Amino acid sequence: MPGGGRLRTPIVRGLRVVLPLAALAILSMLFLLARNPSPDIAIPYVDPEGGNLAQRTGMTAPRFAGVTPDGARYTLSAARAVPDGDEGAASVVALDWRAADGTAAELRAGHAALQDGTIHMTDDVRMTTSAGWVLTAPAIDADTDASLITAPSVVQAAGPFGTVEAGGAVLARNEAGEHVLDLNGGVRLIYDPRP
Q1: CA distance 77 to 119
Q2: How far apart are CA 161 and CA 158, in angstroms?
Q3: Which of 3, 72, 101, 176 could share a disulfide with 68, CB 3.0–4.6 Å?
Q4: DSSP secondary structure string, 45-84?
């Protein structure tokens, strides 16, 4: 059997040269036979026209806090905000408003726009007050300069003594300087005597 070992050695030496060359030839053929990329196929996440960059800019989870002239503190937060000149728009918005006299309101909406110090909230607006009222309305405006919260159109409200339908609502200071929720415009009360 010693002759067989001598025969294997030249074969192994030959395979050590032939196999890497064969692998290199196969790889070369793969690269040569590969299809040329078509210039008509665009990368899906690239806009070839460039688009309007102002429409694509924005902030994720912005938060803004301020104080009104009469001392009410407010915090505005959103899932996303997009600038629009000197103004802006936001989606999935939360506004927490707290007056110096202890009155508080929490507002939630699907969309909001800021214009001249007024936050215009739309898309399923819901306001909960510290007095126990829960209001829903198509739109609510919060004027940060006048510390005034207004629902200009139809309001559905649930309070400590029942439910109310009204043509509008205003949360503002009265003559005594206290913040009061005023439901107006054809108020209809459904009284619930349960505690």
Answers
A1: 12
A2: 8
A3: 72
A4: T--TT---HHHH--EES-EEEEE-TTS-EEEEEEEEEEEE
Q: Which residue has the tokens 């001598």?
A: 6
Give me the residue spans of the domains in the chain.
53-191
For the entire predicted model, the pTM comes to: 0.66
CA 171/CA 184 separation, integer angstroms: 11
| Single-letter code of the amino acid located at 181 | L
Q: Which two tokens stand for residue 143?
A: 């004027």
- The domain defined by 53-191 folds into lipopolysaccharide transport protein A fold (2.60.450)
What would the mean pLDDT of 28-32 be, rounded to a whole number? 75
CB 58 within 8 A of CB 81: yes
Lookup: tokens for 93: 């918005």
Stronger pLDDT, 148 or 12, i.e. the higher one? 148
Rounded Cα gap, residues 110 and 71, in angstroms:
27
What average pLDDT does this structure show over 158-165? 85
3-class DSSP state for residue 30? helix
Q: Which two tokens stand for residue 65?
A: 């806090």
Closest CA to 103 of 148, 145, 146, 66: 148
Question: Which pLDDT score, from 0 to 100, does residue 190 have?
Answer: 77
Q: Is 14 within 8 Å of 22 (Cβ atoms)?
A: no
Could you report how far apart the first and last alpha carbons of the chain are, in Å? 106
